[in-house]
C-alpha cells in the first residue's frame, strides 16, 4: 500500500475526476468530483476545504489565472462555469451541446479553452475590466469527441476519438481572436494520428514546450515532438506500462493519470492497476514506482514548485477489482512529498 506518510485529504463520496494545483501557490489544490462538487483545499489546513456544487458531475477543473479564489469547471452539465470561492457564486462562461470533458485557462489568450463530446473546442475570452465572458466564443469544429486537452504558453494540443490529435499555435489563435475570425477560418497548426492504437486517456505538453506525452486505455505512453523535421520525429517513442501478470494472464490497465514535474521535466503516470510510476523521458527510463494505492488512479498533478504530487484514486474507475487492489478502496486524494526521486537520471 502507498506510503502512510502521504498527506491524506478527507475521503470523497464519489469518484475524483480532476485535479489542479494553483499555478504559483504550491499549497492550493482544486479537486473535481462526480459528486457534482469542486473542492478547494489549502494543504496547510487540509481537513476543511471550501466547496461549491454545480449541475452535473464535474469532469475537469482549472484555475482562473493567478487568482487564488476563482476557478473554472466543466462536466456533464454541458456548460463551463466560473466558481468564486470568496462570494460562493457561479457564473456561466459558455455552453456546449454535450458534456464538457476538458477545461483549461490560457493566460496568453486571456480565455477559457473548453473541449467537449459535442466535437468542438470553444475559446471564450474574459474581459479583463469587467470579468465578463465574451458572448460569442471562437468555436473550432472537430472530427471527433474531445478526450484530453493541454494548453501551454505556445501550443494547444487536443486528443480526440479516432486517434486524432490536433495542435494549434497560441500566437495564431490570438491573432484570430483579435481579428474577430470565425472558427471556420482557423486551421490547426498540425493534424496528426496518435502513435497509440487505442483510445487516448490523457495528454500533457512538456514543460520545455518541445512536444507532448499521451496515454491510452491499453497500458501505453507515447512521447511526441512538435518539430516536423524528420530528425526530430525520429526521436519519438512509445512504451508499455501499468501491466500485470495475473494467474498467468497479461492484464493491461488504462493509464488515466499523467502529470509533468515542471522543475525537473520528468513525468508521472497513474494506472488502473492502482500504481504510480515516475519516468525520465530523456533517458527513456522509469525512475521508480510507488507502492500501490487503495484503488485505480483517476488523476495526477504536481504542484507549482515540483515538491508535491497529488494522487487521486477512485474505486469505480476502470481496473477496479482486477488485481488493482480489489473492489472498493474508496475515493481519495493523497499528497506525496517529492524529493530527489523526481530528478532525472544524471548524464554520463
CATH superfamily of the largest domain: YVTN repeat-like/Quinoprotein amine dehydrogenase
SS strand fraction? over 45%
Terminal Cα span: 34 Å
Biggest sheet features:
4 strands, antiparallel
The mean pLDDT is 91
Compute the CA-based radius of gyration.
19 Å
Pfam families: WD40
Keywords: Repeat, WD repeat
Protein name: BY PROTMAP: gi|472584823|gb|EMS22398.1| cell cycle arrest protein BUB3 [Rhodosporidium toruloides NP11] gi|647401042|emb|CDR46980.1| RHTO0S13e04346g1_1 [Rhodosporidium toruloides]
WD repeats: 93-123, 255-289
Describe this structure in words.
WD repeats lie at residues 93-123, 255-289. This is BY PROTMAP: gi|472584823|gb|EMS22398.1| cell cycle arrest protein BUB3 [Rhodosporidium toruloides NP11] gi|647401042|emb|CDR46980.1| RHTO0S13e04346g1_1 [Rhodosporidium toruloides]. Keywords: Repeat, WD repeat. The protein has 348 residues and is mostly beta strands. It has 2 domains: 8-143, YVTN repeat-like/Quinoprotein amine dehydrogenase (Methylamine Dehydrogenase, Chain H), CATH 2.130.10.10; 201-224 and 240-338, Methylamine Dehydrogenase, Chain H (7 Propeller), CATH 2.130.10. It has helices spanning 170-178, 230-233, and strands spanning 7-8, 16-21, 28-33, 37-42, 50-53, 58-63, 70-75, 79-84, 89-95, 100-106, 111-116, 120-125, 138-141, 146-151, 155-160, 164-169, 190-193, 200-205, 211-216, 220-225, 237-240, 243-246, 249-252, 255-260, 267-271, 276-280, 285-289, 297-302, 308-314, 331-337. The protein has a 4-stranded antiparallel β-sheet with strand order 1-30-29-28, with no helix packed on it. Strands 2-3-4-5 form a 4-stranded antiparallel β-sheet, with no helix packed on it. The longest helix is centred in the middle third of the chain and has 9 residues, at 170-178. The model is unreliable at 319-326 (pLDDT under 50).
Amino acid at each position: 500500500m502507498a506510503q502512510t506518510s502521504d498527506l491524506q485529504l478527507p475521503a470523497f463520496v464519489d469518484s475524483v475526476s480532476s485535479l489542479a494545483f494553483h499555478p504559483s501557490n504550491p499549497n492550493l489544490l482544486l479537486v473535481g468530483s462526480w459528486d457534482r462538487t469542486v473542492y478547494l483545499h489549502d494543504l496547510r489546513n487540509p481537513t476543511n476545504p471550501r466547496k461549491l456544487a454545480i449541475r452535473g458531475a464535474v469532469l475537469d477543473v482549472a484555475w482562473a489565472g493567478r487568482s487564488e479564489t476563482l476557478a473554472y469547471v466543466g462536466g456533464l452539465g454541458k456548460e463551463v462555469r466560473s466558481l468564486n470561492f470568496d462570494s460562493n457564486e457561479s457564473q456561466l462562461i459558455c455552453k456546449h451541446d454535450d458534456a464538457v470533458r476538458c477545461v483549461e485557462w490560457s493566460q496568453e489568450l486571456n480565455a477559457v479553452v473548453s473541449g467537449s463530446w459535442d466535437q468542438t473546442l470553444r475559446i471564450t475570452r474574459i474581459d479583463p475590466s469587467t470579468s465578463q465572458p465574451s458572448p460569442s466564443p471562437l468555436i473550432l469544429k472537430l472530427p471527433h469527441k474531445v478526450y484530453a486537452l493541454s494548453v501551454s504558453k505556445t501550443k494547444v494540443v487536443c486528443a480526440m476519438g479516432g486517434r486524432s490529435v490536433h495542435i494549434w499555435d497560441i500566437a495564431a489563435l490570438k491573432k484570430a481572436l483579435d481579428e474577430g475570425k470565425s472558427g471556420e477560418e482557423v486551421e490547426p497548426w498540425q493534424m496528426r494520428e496518435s502513435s497509440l492504437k487505442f483510445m487516448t486517456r490523457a495528454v500533457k505538453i512538456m514543460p520545455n514546450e518541445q512536444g507532448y506525452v499521451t496515454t491510452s486505455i491499453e497500458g501505453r505512453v507515447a512521447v511526441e515532438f512538435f518539430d516536423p523535421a524528420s530528425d526530430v520525429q525520429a526521436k519519438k517513442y512509445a512504451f508499455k506500462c501499468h501491466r500485470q501478470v495475473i494467474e498467468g494472464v497479461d492484464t493491461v490497465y488504462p493509464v488515466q493519470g499523467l502529470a509533468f514535474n515542471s522543475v525537473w521535466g520528468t513525468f508521472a503516470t497513474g494506472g488502473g492497476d492502482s500504481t504510480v510510476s515516475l519516468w525520465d523521458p530523456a533517458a527513456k527510463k522509469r525512475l521508480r514506482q510507488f507502492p500501490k494505492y487503495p484503488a485505480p488512479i483517476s488523476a495526477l498533478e504536481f504542484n507549482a514548485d515540483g515538491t508535491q504530487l497529488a494522487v487521486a484514486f477512485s474505486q469505480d474507475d476502470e481496473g477496479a477489482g482486477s488485481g488493482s487492489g480489489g473492489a472498493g478502496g474508496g475515493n481519495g486524494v493523497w499528497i506525496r512529498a517529492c524529493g530527489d526521486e523526481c530528478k532525472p537520471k544524471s548524464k554520463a
